[in-house]
Write a structure and sequence with these properties.
The chain has 275 residues and is α/β, with parallel strands linked by helices. It has two domains: 206 residues, Alpha-Beta Complex (2-enoyl-CoA Hydratase, Chain A, domain 1), CATH 3.90.226; 48 residues, Lyase 2-enoyl-coa Hydratase, Chain  A, domain 2. It is 44% helix and 17% strand. A six-stranded mixed beta sheet has the order 1-2-3-5-7-10, sandwiched between helices. A four-stranded mixed beta sheet has the order 4-6-8-9. 38% of the residues are buried. The structure holds ligand T3D. The site of ligand T3D has 22 residues, from α2 and β6.
Length: 275
């Protein structure tokens, strides 16, 4: 299935990375720091669906055009922003979340390939949590993460209430969410919120190298690892061990396991192909 033509709001590009292809999706509303309106949501979902359905794609990278990664909800979008006139009816933000943000989080966490966020600039509100939903987050040193929700009277959404305490623990999660301060990328790495912080001029090459590396790995095992870790958060140890046995049983029957062991024995690089 070809990637859809989504000029404008999400730029899709496919690059050969040796063992497979890396699909890079660039949020492209730079004048609004790539804040989400309905069209951007639709374009991103279409691009993620297409990447998921394209058997050539073995890793997805999400990044932003211009100086921002994503500033969350577009606070000027008439479909979502409150009308400030006295007596105007409130907007249904719950509906907005059900329509756009929940499917986005679920899409990201069930992608059949690993997803890397290459955070090129400020990531605020839903934009911060979009990045944190990805499997690996690499950020430019000048980038920052802001749980901006409390500043406008909202709770962290786009998975924030679930993700933050799991990533950094309750004390830090509440500090970030209640205060809404700008967290520089370097500190985000030190807290364990993200995987890596690199110099700005190294972001694109670092993300590309990480994606190429993931693309050459056993995709199905990587995705099962994400699935098991997400599920384990609500399981006791015994249930998590059951789940590990179940996943390992499946993976043990797959081509990539045979290939991995054969490559080890033959002292050569493996050629993984399952997806
Ligand atoms: O509908 C709902 O509200 C429910 C869903 C909620 C999910 C959420 O994401 S809630 C959180 C929404 N996001 C924010 O509150 C962040 C708002 N933005 C900012 O606080 C700042 O812009 C930043 C800290 C992200 C960056 O600051 P700075 O100084 O680097 O840039 P700036 O000058 O503020 O912004 C540059 C332009 O982007 C500016 O436009 P202009 O004046 O040059 O024409 C600004 O208005 C625009 N922009 C930034 N964020 C948004 C935005 N436009 C629309 N929506 C935005 N979220």
């Amino acid at each position: 299935m070809p990637l859809p033509d989504t000029p404008g709001l999400v730029l899709s590009s496919l690059a050969d990375a040796g063992a497979g292809r890396v699909c890079t999706l660039t949020l492209n509303r730079p004048a609004q720091l790539n804040a989400f309106n309905g069209e951007l949501h639709e374009a991103l979902m279409a691009a993620l669906d297409a990447a998921a359905a394209d058997a050539r794609v073995r890793c997805v990278v999400i990044t932003g055009a211009g100086r921002g990664f994503c500033a969350g909800q577009d606070l000027a979008d008439p479909a979502a922003a409150p009308e400030l006139a006295p007596g105007a009816p409130p907007k249904d933000l719950g509906g907005l979340i059900e329509r756009h943000y929940r499917p986005l989080v679920q899409r990201l966490r069930t992608m059949p390939v690993p997803v890397v966020a290459a955070v090129n600039g400020v990531a605020a509100g839903a934009g911060a949590n979009l990045a944190l939903c990805c499997d690996l987050v690499v950020a430019a040193r000048s980038a920052s993460f802001i749980q901006a929700f409390a500043k406008i009277g909202l709770v962290p959404d786009t998975g924030g209430t679930w993700l933050l305490p799991r990533l950094v623990g309750r004390a830090r999660a509440l500090g970030l969410a209640l205060l809404g301060d700008k967290l520089p990328a370097e500190q985000a790495q030190q807290l364990g919120l993200i995987w890596q912080c690199v110099d700005d001029d190294q972001l694109a090459t670092t993300a590309a190298a990480l994606a190429a590396r993931l693309a050459a790995m056993p995709t199905r095992a990587l995705v099962a690892t994400r699935q098991a870790m997400d599920a384990a958060g609500t399981m006791d140890l015994s249930t998590a061990l059951d789940e590990e046995a179940h996943l390992q049983r499946d993976l043990g029957r797959a081509h990539d396991y045979l290939e991995g062991v054969a490559a080890f024995r033959e002292k050569r690089a493996p050629r993984f192909s399952d997806r």
